[in-house]
Every structure is written in structure tokens, then in C-alpha cells.
Amino acid sequence: FPAVIAAATLAFSHTFWRHAVIAETYTFYTALLLIELIMLLQYVKTKRKMFLCLLGLFNGLAIANHMFAAIAFICYLVFCIVLLARRQIRLRHFRTIALLWVIGAAPYVYLILKDIIQTGNFTDAAASALFGKSWQANVLNVSLSAQLIKGNLLLIAYNFPTPNIIFFLVGLYGLKKVSPTRGFANILLALLILFFVFAFRYTVPDRYVFFIPFYCVASVLIGVGFNLLIPKPNRRVLCWIVFIFALLPIPAYIIAPGIAQKQKFNLSTRVDVPYRNDYVWFLQPWKAGYSGAEEFAEEVFEILELDAVVYADNTMVYPLLYVQEVKGKRTDIKIISEYAGSEGLPLVSEKSIEQW
Asked: Would the pTM count as exceeding 0.85?
């Protein structure tokens, strides 16, 4: 039951749920992170090197999915170096783990090497691989404002609107008592702190997303806290109460948009997206019934003249292309942008302006 509570807490947390139903990389990364922790747990319980090898493979695959995995990579690397220094693993084991990590990360490693070869600039390629083209200042940010702190605390509270959050504090306090080894507990706590610090001082517009791995580890500690605080003989009745508490986020998400809209709460989202109530769109994690993007594209196609050319921004170009290419509507229209375009058309850039 503690595991059920931990899983339900993560599943019903606003940001994890929201990104479990849209096409993004973050929840897939969370799945890989949990697999990594299971492999690590199996190793510390059995001392079988196979689980360390699988840990390397899955972390490499996570790197290929999102550079977020570099945070966990640092923790695992330190752990393996300590094992090597204590002669609990040998150098050949370390090499095997590293090889499997490279195999898992191979898709991303290939792209990095390709970028280096094409540009001939190692520094720019490495910076792009680590930070993207535009986010280096955000990734390395070390300053905090009162507005940033307030916003982050509200986001965290909105993900755990349940009395069960008390179990997190208990789990944090008692983790080392129940952990099979001190090393496993240290890695779990290090991940909790590093993921929290990274997201808390991150300044990109969608920074709320980067708390997901922190919520993941926090949910594990909520399960640990329940196991420690509620003795087994008393669980029969208390289990139902705690499970009902775990469901409280659902009604909270139902009523929150109306309250926020009435208070004119600033969500810091784009307010110029057609057919979208931002309070409902952001604060309710489920996306069933939302068809704003398709309605927008349908209206654009209805009012455009024959053989029109549409110059679309990053948000609008993909719904238009989807309706045109997948549904086969208005194939006479040419859609252009800096990011994508109708089949056979070059992207709009300084180089293509003359051609246009």
C-alpha cells in the first residue's frame, strides 16, 4: 500500500499528469529515472553487477531522451567511483557499465558528433548539446527574485494539495533507517536536492515542468513516510483515509480554474492563443475535449483565398500543417515559417528570403 500511495501521489500531481497526456519528453524521462532507481536498488540488495550495467544502459538512454539525465548521471558516476575505490567492483565492470551507457546514449552522441563534423566548432556543438541554442543563461542562472520564489512555492503546493504531504517529511527524516544501504539513501537524497535546486532557479517560461523529477523522488519519500508513520496493525482503516486524501488533487484541479479566473491570477502563459481558456488549459491537467488548435486551423482555412500563402509563427504553424497534411484540407495553400512548412518549401530564413 505505501507503494500504491507513492504511485498515486505522482500520478495525480498536476505537472506529471499534465505532461503524461501531451507529447513531451519529461514523463518518459521520469519513467527511465524510476527504472534506474529500481536497478540501483536491486544492485545494493543483491550486489549483482548486472544491475549496475543495466543502470548505465538506462541512464544513457535517458540522456538520449533529455539532458536532464545528466544530474542523475553525476550521482551514479560518483557512486561507481566509490565502489571502484573500495574494490567492490573491478575496472572491467566499470568499463562495461561505461560501454552500455554509450550504447544507450548513442542516438544523442551521434547527433553531437554530426554537429561537430558539420560545423567544425567543438565548443558551439558542446554548448548546444548541453544547453540548447538559447538556454545557456537560464541553465546557469544563480539569481533568485521574490516573484520567482513565490511562483515556485505555489507550483509545488499545487502539485501536492493533500494532507499526505506530511508523509514526505517523515520519509525524509527516516529514509536512512529503511534504506538497504547508506549509499542508496544518499543517492536518493542527492537526486531530491539537485532536481529541486535545478528547477527552483531555472528561469525558462515553462520552468514548472522541470520540477517533475523532484516530484517523482518526493512521491517515493511519501510512500516511505507512510510505511514508517502508520504501523501495520492500524492500516486497515487508515489506508482508506490516506487513499481518499491521495484523490484530493482531482477536485482541487476542477475548482482551481474558476477561482483563479475570478481573482485574475497571472499564470504567465501565452494569452494570444485562439480558442483557449488559459486557466482551464493550464490548471486542469487532463486534456480531454480540448480542440482549440483544430478549430483555429479550420477557421483559417475557411477564410483564406485560393492559393494563399500563410506565414505562421512557432505555435500556429503545426496545427495548420496537421490539418493540411493529415486531413488533406486546402492543399492549395502554402504554409511557411522559420520552423516548418508545406512539403517542398524551404524554411524562411535570411538565406531563403531572396528565393521567396
From this structure: yes
